[in-house]
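Field reference: sequence -> structure
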Amino acid sequence: MREKEDCVLLLPAAGQGSRMGGEKKKPFLPLADKPVIVHTLQACLRASLFSRILVMVAPGIESLFAAEIHEPFFPGNKAIVCAPGGSSRQESVFRGLKTLGDAVSGDMIVCVHDAVRPCVSPQLLRRVVAEARTWGAAIAAVTPTDTIKVVDGDNNVLSTPLRETLVAVQTPQCFKFSIIWEAHCRASAVSASDDAMLVERLGKTVRVVPGSHTNIKLTTPHDLRLAALYLANGTEEGV
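Structure field:
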């Protein structure tokens, strides 16, 4: 394994989480007696990959992160840094890249992971980072278990793509800094649901690494209950 100095982590955590309901933002919601983002950070730290972890929170709540997350759960850990994110996930990642600035080289690996995917395993993080070092860009993804239909605006089926050609994309998504920086700089008016989409627009190869069906993104209250079960029983599974 390479030294930590060539790998950093961005955790976008500034989303509103309107579908979850409640007053607290998703990363701060309780899950198995800890805030969601604490589970995520602990898994990422166990991977022993990152020299720096930059958490992008909603502007104005940096002190809340310090009081409720950093100080009680990671006291004295100077590798974890909090910074203000943006109004969208894409903007938060771009702000994070700007914050890294001159502290990184072009070949340094930047790993982007959703703060509300607390069931990520250290093994998966290591696999995606390793592929990114070889290919320049790598993402975690799983084969969908359901048949997917393409529909029109009136909910009429247009086609049924082969399931073997489809993947459901997750995070972590890892890139050489030079690649992800160029992708975001050229994005301008483009709105992308993930960073890989911006890299694809550059014509770069994005390598798919088998992810895990337990590596869920928390969106609804049901997801919280499911994540608690996964955390209790282990998160690394076959794909």
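Note: The CA atoms of residues 4 and 48 lie 7 Å apart.
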